[in-house]
Fold this protein.
Amino acid sequence: MAHLENAAVTHKKFSGVSAELNFAGQRLILLKPLTFMNLSGKSVMQALQFYKLPLSNLIVIHDELDLNFGTVRLKNGGGHGGHNGLRSIIENLGKADFIRLRIGIGKAPDGNTTDHVLGRITPEQMEKLPVILDGAIEMLQVMLKEGIAKSMSLYNNKNFLEG
């Protein structure tokens, strides 16, 4: 992510790995839960409570079956859509009023959702992943500087693999 200042040392707490840094004058706390996906809400809740952050400051980045591979979208609020990580976060926080950065993985070609979600990414997809993640970072940067509405209007209908 461009324009990072004072990236802090990574810490192991909140049942995960976390780091603090600054972006464009804003304090960011990054958290990667180390729990099973269906228990990740515990980790998120611990971090929000420790830092005394409101739910409106939470951005959850997750995979999304309902979006084609290469598509990245921002969404504010909503249900869990069958995603066990989101389900856990919503159950632990008691609300779903947070921003999601949804990274499309597409539906399983053979219909086996479990193997698709938990399996390995194909070499072809792995080759394209940096372009998608760069696009996601760009979306987040615009959101942090200019707001979610601006970022959504610029990027939500864009597939980063199509240019």
User: Anything to note?
Assistant: The chain has five helices and seven strands.
